Amino acid sequence: MKKAKYLLAYLLPVLVGFSFLNEGWITFLPLIVYFGLLPLIELFIKPDSSNWNPEQIEKEKKSLFYDIIIFGMVPVQLFFLVWFLSFDFSSIDIITNTGRVISMGIMCAVIGINVGHELAHRVQSWHRYLGDILLLTSLENHFVPYHNRGHHTNVATPGDPATARLNEPLYFFWFRSQIGSYIQAWQIEIQRMKIMKMHSFSIHNKMIRYTIAHLVLCFGIFFFINFVALLYFLMAAIIGILLLETVNYIEHYGLLRKVLPSGQFERVKRHHSWNSNHVLGRIVLFELSRHSDHHYKADKPYQILESHEESPCMPVGYPSMMLLSIVPPLFFYLMNDRVKDALDNKMAEVKPKEKVKETLDEFDLNRFVKAQDGDYSRALNEIKSAQKRSHWMWYIFPQWNGLGRTSTSMKYAIKSREEAMVYFEHPVLGIRLKEITKAFLNIDNKSAKDVLGSPDFLKMKSCMTLFHLIQEETDVFNLVLEKFYDGKLCNTTQHKLKY
Predict the structure, then answer these.
(1) pTM assigned to the model
(2) Backbone dihedral region of 461: left (phi > 0), alpha (psi from -120 to 50 degrees) or beta?
(3) Which long-range contacts (CB under 8 A, 24 or more apart) does 232-236 make?
(4) Containing domain of residue 198, as a range?
(5) Residues 132 and 181 in one domain
(6) 421 in the same domain as 438
(7) Which of 285, 312, 346 is the last residue of a domain?
(8) pLDDT tens by residue, 335-370
């Protein structure tokens, strides 16, 4: 029964079908249900903060049922878009046209962008391809490079366009977020091309490919249908984009990460996103409202996202919060005190030195520090010279437990996600890992096998996969995979880490 609840997400296509088959006020049915009836019902349903138990999480994350529901949304979205474009808009009354455009716009947001977002975070390339198709129906493909490598890196900082500032009206935010994210998407891809030693406007630049896809789609609608159909499609896409930005607005409103003594921002944690456990919103949006856990572990599939006590909670569900946000004074009245409480509780938190030491001791990371003290400088110089000559791979580029059988490989194996993250954040080990990985990324005209030899080039692939998958704040690991391994991850490491 808990699985079957997600079938309720198909309520939207049913409602849009009613809209497309009828005329007059009934064409507004999706709007009435999603932003009228659902918020009203949620007022009488107690939020549910319960989570699966660990055994159930293991079972649910392997279930194909949840993927089938998500994948089914792709043909549904495409079918409804074709149906929408088949209307003779010029011969239909304005009320019916308006209702149908709004209905299609809601589909563009909830299915095109929201489900596209879920798939864009998947590791499997064909999942991400399906996400690209869905995002194309809303002309929002720049979302992928910006969201995955911009927003997840800079969230809850002044550098993130999609983090709403305290007392910032929604209508200002719409423009700042959409324009800012589009610019950042180009910057991210141009920087990636430079690292890959490719022309900034190479076809490998995702923004070039997305721009071409948008032009082909729009010109295709214009040439094969007509200009009026294109105009109505653009209106529906804009509605979808504005709904996306409204969701972005409520998800991080006013929240900020601490600035550490080093001048860097603290790592993204669960209290840097607003959470909602209101049941109906969770279901129809595929658990998007458990946003805190999504940002904490972005590769988690929607069905096992969790609620945690440290996550600040919205007073009502997503649909209600979106409605409240269109009246800025009311939204500020409801949220500003909650923002202050969240910041007072979390910004003042500093992990005691004893607690830091306790965490490090738990994983015995000092074994890496001791091993590297004698070899790190030599390893860095060898990487800079593009030729590995000595033996240090296991403790300079650590890999997941079980990938090696020697005593050395087992001694320096990473045994949990938490240990990998503590390693990544270690004041010595983390800095060294990023430094030597950047040095490796700067190598040109040689393969990873040429530089490291065999089987060490495979160990490198495993290490890069590990640290790419456990966090999204540093992109250098993924760039190494793209440049030296054709963007392919280590299958064994990926399988062991998979949620």
Answers:
(1) 0.86
(2) alpha
(3) 232/84, 232/85, 232/87, 232/89, 232/97, 232/101, 233/81, 233/84, 233/85, 234/139, 235/101, 235/105, 236/84, 236/101, 236/104, 236/105, 236/108
(4) 4-346
(5) yes
(6) yes
(7) 346
(8) 999 999 988 875 444 444 444 454 556 788 999 999
